[in-house]
Design a protein that fits this description.
463 residues; alpha+beta; six-stranded antiparallel barrel; three-stranded antiparallel β-sheet; 19 strands
């Protein structure tokens, strides 16, 4: 005669009720069955026998990590280049380990999860912050999150500003087999603007293709040398030095100096950042900034709009399509933007400013191609236009747009347009008025269409 079992773990409880293990896991994680009362992950016999097996079995629905990642990516509303999505199948494993999703089965790195719980997570307004906190990023994703080129992100790592928090093995098949790729904390990446306030991050983000990174001239730091003075702590927290001195006097847990003198003490940067976060003296940046749009419709009406957490994708071919998407504050603004872009030839972007991009303009055919409302109620709009119509605004803002097509990886000295620091352009070799007799640069003049810029200047000089 067998010994009567008095406690059950997950597998034993599922076996006792003759239900799938995944069904019991979800019932336990969702609160359908009472919490484990006999230890961590262990239930008493009385609790198990009181559970209705049919009710547990009826709750079982699972989706793979890839499907769950797609649903969270859709809810996030942020698209990244192909093969570099913001939420990957591996990210689902990180969310399970963080306790945000219940593991139902499958591989621990790419688990099966419940669709209802994924939907609930997708409705949370703090989803981007949760991802930053719990899901590490590969180098390419990290560069996009920081808003810089990949080569600039490599400089960030070289300087010791970031260190890997883990690795993942990726099989590139024909491109070299299995490669170990480092992973970086998205939270640490988001905090770089705060923790390294002396770096001109705007200049780094606006560095054009082919240019040397502004970070290349900086000297690397090590954990032993990465120290800050009270003045830099004050810059991080955006307060005066006297406030930091007061914090140090009033809070016994303020980090102790690791070097320096009594007058000018030096503190470990990582310890100071952790203290500032714990005491709400600094906060994690919410997103990737704001894009500002000045739009003119075909009927002459204009409007100014703001897109939060924008994503700007620029084609690298003149025959391609550019895309801008972002969260819009007011649905009325979304309707007004759609109305301006509803004409037969779309709208014109007189000026577009966005993080990590130069000041852009588009000479027409701008259209709203998608309006997506997330589970949290926020509205995301997407605009598209042919890359051949893209240009850059003039330095003074008068005279309109310098027509480029697609920016090239060339230095400003190579640009034949003396009035504008465009950093390279795709030349227009033929003018409708003068053929190929004038230099291949065209200015956009709102009142008179396309005119040969050099010819215009020549006439003005001779007048």
């Amino acid at each position: 005669m067998g010994v009567r079992r008095e406690v059950y773990d997950v597998e034993q409880a599922a076996g006792r009720l003759r239900v799938p293990v995944a069904a019991w896991r979800w019932a336990a994680g969702s609160g359908l069955v009472p919490a484990a009362d006999a230890g961590r992950g262990v239930w008493s016999r009385a609790v198990v026998e009181a559970v209705d097996p049919e009710a547990v079995r009826a709750t079982l629905r699972g989706i793979g990590a890839g499907v769950a990642a797609d649903r969270l990516t859709e809810a996030l509303g942020v698209r990244l280049p192909p093969m570099r999505p913001r939420v990957t199948a591996a990210a689902i494993g990180h969310l399970v380990r963080a306790g945000l999703l219940v593991y139902l089965g499958g591989e621990t790195e790419f688990p099966v999860v419940h669709p209802d719980q994924v939907a609930a997570l997708a409705r949370r307004r703090d989803l981007p912050a949760l991802l930053d906190q719990h899901v590490p990023l590969g180098p390419d994703q990290a560069a996009v999150r920081l808003g810089v080129r990949r080569r600039d992100f490599d400089e960030v790592v070289r300087l010791g500003f970031l260190a890997p928090v883990g690795t993942v093995d990726i099989d590139f098949k024909r491109q070299g087999g299995v490669t170990s790729v480092p992973l970086y904390s998205a939270r640490d990446i988001a905090l770089l603007d705060v923790t390294r306030p002396w770096v001109d991050w705007r200049a780094v983000r606006e560095t054009r293709p082919g240019r040397r990174s502004p970070l290349a001239c900086l000297v690397p730091v090590t954990p032993d040398t990465d120290r800050v003075l009270l003045a830099e702590v004050a810059r991080m927290a955006r307060v005066g030095r006297a406030a930091v001195v007061n914090w140090r006097r009033r809070h016994p847990d303020f980090p102790a100096p690791t070097a320096g003198t009594d007058v000018h003490p030096e503190f470990d940067r990582a310890a100071v950042v952790a203290w500032l976060l714990a005491h709400d003296k600094i906060t994690l940046p919410a997103g990737a900034g704001t894009a500002s749009l000045l739009v003119r419709g075909t009927g002459g009406a204009t409007g100014r709009f703001r897109l939060d957490a924008p994503w700007l994708g620029l084609a690298d071919d003149i025959e391609g399509t550019d895309q801008l998407s972002g969260w819009i504050v007011d649905e009325v603004d979304a309707d007004a933007l759609a109305a301006l872009a509803a004409g037969a030839v779309g709208a014109t972007l007189t000026r577009l400013t966005a993080p990590s991009a130069g000041r852009l303009a588009v000479l027409g055919d701008v259209r709203v191609t998608d309006r997506f409302r997330s589970g949290s109620g926020a509205l995301r709009v997407t605009l598209e236009w042919p890359a051949r119509l893209r240009g850059t605004t003039t330095r003074t803002g008068r005279g309109g747009v310098v027509r480029h097509g697609v920016p090239q990886a060339r230095t400003g000295e190579d640009c034949v347009c003396e009035r504008h620091d465009c950093g390279g352009l795709v030349p227009v070799l033929w003018c409708v008025e003068h053929g190929d007799e004038v230099a291949p640069v065209l200015d956009w003049h709102a009142g008179g269409g396309l005119r040969c810029a050099q010819l215009t200047r020549g006439r003005a000089a001779s007048a």
